[in-house]
Amino acid sequence: MIMGIQQFLTSSGIQMQTLEFWLEQEWLIPEQTASGMRFSETDVARAHLIQSLKVDFGVNDEGIDVALHLIDQLHGIRRALAQVHEEMRGGSV
Amino acid sequence: MASNPYDVLGVPSSASAADIQKAYRKLAKKLHPDLNPGNKTAEEKFKEVAAAYDVLGDAEKRKRFDNGEIDSSGTEQPQHRFYRDFAGAEEGHSYTSSAGFADYTDEDDAFAELLRRSRYARANRRGEDLHYRLAIEFVESITGADKRVTLPDGGTLDVKIPPGLVDGQVLRLKSKGAPGAGKGGAGDALIEVEVLPDRRFTRDGDNIFLELPISLSEAVLGGQVRVPTPTGDVTMSVPKGSNTGTTLRLRGKGAPRRGGGSGDELVKLKIILPKSPDPELEAFVANWGNGKNFNPREGNAS
Known about the structure:
Chain A is mostly helical. Helices cover 69% and strands 6% of the residues of chain A. Chain B is built from ten helices and eleven strands.
C-alpha cells in the first residue's frame, strides 16, 4: 500500500517535525512524485524500527545512524547469501 | 496462561525501575526481530518480553499487577509488521546495501564468481538503484523547480524539486534506476540535491535571513524599501529610528513547510553611509550636541 504524508504520519505515529529530521538524516527516503512524497509499508516498518531504537533501546541519533547503516548492510548480505544459496541448489554447481 | 512478567525479564519483584529497563533492553537486543533478522524464534520471545515490559516498565501498571488487579495477559501491544519482513522481501527494496560484501565480488575465485552471478545475472532481479547528484540555486530550493539531470549514458531524467527542499535532501524517483531482469522491476534513481549558497539569502529551518543595506535617511526617518524575497521583491516599511541589526519579519516569505504554511523571511538592517564623505552631513554632525553626548558603549559590559 502506498500512502501520502498524512497517512504515513498516522500509521507510523510520528510528528511532522520528526519526519523532517529523519528525512534530513536520510533514515527515510520516500519515493518522490510530482504530487509529493509517497510512502510504502517498508517505510512505515522502518519508522517503527527507528522508534524502537530511540524509545525502547535509548539509542541516540548518532547511534541510530550507525545501527541503520549496519542493518542495511546486514540485509544486503542476507539477500546475497540467499541468492548464492539458490544458485547452488538449483543450478549447475 | 501468561507467565509471570518478572520471570520473563529475569528480575526479582523488588527490582528498581532502572533495573527493569536494563533487563528489558538486554533481552530486547538479543530478541528484537529487526536486530536478529535470521532468528525465527526471536519474534515470539520478543513479544513475550515486550508484553512483560509493558506491564513492569510502567509504574502505574506495575503497581496494579503487584496488587493483583491485572494479570500479564491481554497487555500485548497490537503488533506492527517488523522491518525485516520488508527488507528481506524478494522484490527487493532500496535501503539494503551491498557495502558489507562488495569486496568479495572483486576476488578472482569460484565464490566471487558465484556471488557476482547471483548479484548480476539472476532471473527476476530488481534493477540496481542509481545515484545522482544535482545542484540547484537557493531560490529554486524555496520555490520548487523542474530540473533535468543529464545521465552519464547521455539520457536525461526530469526531476521535480519540491518547494522548501533542504540542502543534501535525497529524492527518490521510482523505477528510474537500472532495469531489472525478468519479472524484477527497475531500480530507483536516488538524487542527492545540493543547494548552492546564495549571495543574499541564508536559511535556518523554515526561516530565511537577509541582510538589507539602508541609507542613514531611511534609518532615521523611516520609509518604504524594496526587499528581495525568493518569490520576488516586496515593499516593506522601515520604521523611524531603525538601527543596524534591527530585524524585521516578513511573514510567510520563508521556506514552505511540508505540512503546509511557510516560514518567515527575517530582514536584518544595515546602515550604510554615503560612499564619499558628505560635507553637509559632517557639518551637521559636528554641531549635533545630542549626538556627542550619546555613548552607545555605556552600560555595555564588554
